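Collaborator request, handled under Task 6.
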Amino acid sequence: MKTIINTEKAPKAIGPYSQAVEANGTLYISGQLPIDVATSRLVDGGVKEQAEQCLKNIGYILDAAGYTFDNVVKSTCLLSDIAHFAEMNEVYTRYYAGDCPARAAFAVKALPAGALVEIETIAVK
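Structure tokens returned to the collaborator:
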């Protein structure tokens, strides 16, 4: 059995997918773009500001499903340029300072809406 998770605090899905799906104690959060719900636009700034917004959006979804960043076991960070890795990582480490989740980070040709960063997450209770 699965439960669809949606919150008004995070950006609405812009395609045929859910913000997150919970199944058997595992939460699968779709890739979060750095969209500010208040403006429905990418946040101003560069990689650091965008990574911060992605992680805030993930936090809103975790909270809506009854999870925290401590429950995260895997992240996938998509970057428009691998040169952005250090800046993204600087922000990422503020959210995962202790027992860090497994992670993959790689560059892709392009991200939706011209974003510089997108992050997807898996959490387990």
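The cover message to the collaborator said: "The longest strand covers residues 72-79. The chain has a mean pLDDT of 96. Please let us know whether this matches your experimental observations."
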